[in-house]
Amino acid sequence: MVSCKTETKEVSKKNIQFITIDPGHFHAALVQKYNYPEVDSTVYIYAPKGDDVTLHLNRIEGFNSREENPTNWNTILYEGPDFFEKMLSEKKGNVVVLSGNNRKKSEYINQSVINGLNVLADKPMAINMDDFKLLKKTFELASQKNMFLYDVMTERFEITSILQRELSMNKTIFGDLEIGSPEDPAITKESIHHFYKYVSGNILTRPPWFFDVNQQGEGIVDVTTHLVDLIQWQCFPNQILHEEDVNINSATRTPTHISKSEFEAVTKLNHFPDYLQNAIVNDSLLAVFCNGEINYKLKDIHAKVSVKWNYMAPEGTTDTHFSKMRGTKVNLIIKQGKEENFKPTLYIETRALSDANLENVIVEFKKLEEKYPGISLRSTPLGWEVMIPESYKNGHEAHFSQVTEKFIEYLTKRNLPEWEIPNMITKYYTTTKALEMAKSN
């Protein structure tokens, strides 16, 4: 069945045309929060009938109708059970955007590339080892066909993560990254998320399948994708990594329990679907395996990532991120707790610096100020807090546009760094191998 939502807006043909597939996650809409000069304003959507695509269209319409900096997306929708086959037969664009149910995502990526389409995919690209093996083959195929395949790593655009990376690359300030141990890793990243949250000012409605780990993926292969990516990006900047560089010491998974009333509040569905029945415990609670921890070694560096999902954040709080990099001279720590008003804040904690070395930190930081005008240092009992102007803090939603802009640059200029593809493969090997280990335990 075909239905169209056509707007009377002038459409100018551009080099890039988006095709959005089954947009079940709000991240699909955030890719379109702004227009891009290189991207045609007409977007073709192929999806099954249901609430997911309706919510997506409403979000796009919200971007088009907002007072400040409205977009002018023109949506042409095909709805039907054969939506993916229909997309492949029509091929109305040249970039497939994937952000939704992850059960078939690796397959959709593979078939898109086989059919000559570039892919911009939200994480995770793979939620189990079988998906990973297919994804790896797809990357090889994409290289042969000169197609472009990329995932949405928004956290690389968060300013405290950027500055943590920059400072860790400065040996005068940071020294060398410690080797660490499983008990005391050289780098630690922790992420806390919430099912009940606000997006673009509204309470987020989550699709019921989001709570099914066979469709969304477990926490250890979902949010940890960002954390593993940041570890690779920060500890081994601009370096190629391979599967054999990864040695997983341990991996664990635990559930968060969701009541029926909590489930209804975020899904608007007053019952647990049949596909969730096997996850119900104590007759009424849904056990969602969304928490996980990976303790592993990347080359010679010990690292740990962990993710935890709570139902709702305490009042005044939000999703939070913690990161610690241990250098021989200083530790670089990102905190987002009550003392930081739940805003990401970067600290430089000194270890064993002489007065001369302390002065060197100040001098070297001045060089970083030239690259990021307005940043400064404020003394703390343990070292310094990096003061960052609000203009750099554009928020998580804006990072999707920044990733998309980078994708467009890589696609049009063909200047993708040589480390990106092998490191994507290494990242998904890490997460899916960890899940395999955690489930075997």
Describe this structure in words.
This protein is an alpha/beta fold. The chain has a domain of 244 residues: Dihydrodipicolinate Reductase, domain 2, CATH 3.30.360. It has twelve helices and 18 strands. Strands 7, 10, 11, 12, 13, 14, 15, 16, 17 and 18 form a ten-stranded mixed beta sheet that branches. It has a six-stranded parallel beta sheet with strand order 3-2-1-4-5-6, with helices on one face. A hairpin with a 2-residue loop joins strand 8 and strand 9. Helix 8 packs across helix 12. The radius of gyration is 22 Å and the shape is globular. The protein starts with 17 loop residues before the first strand and ends with a helix.
Q: How many extended strands?
A: 18
- Please, how many helices? 12
What sequence of helices (H) and strands (E) makes up the elements?
Answer: EHEHEHEHEHEHHEEEHEHEEEEEEHEEHH
Briefly note the CATH topology name of the domain at 156-399. Dihydrodipicolinate Reductase, domain 2
Oligomeric form of this entry?
A: single chain
CATH class call of the domain at 156-399? Alpha Beta
Radius of gyration: 22 Å
- Rounded to the nearest angstrom, the distance between the terminal CA atoms is 46 Å
Give the second-level CATH assignment, the architecture of the domain at 156-399.
2-Layer Sandwich
Strand content: 25-35%
Which outline best applies?
globular
Largest sheet: 10 strands, mixed
Low-confidence stretches: 1-13
Structural class: alpha/beta
Overall helicity? 25-40%
Mean pLDDT: 92
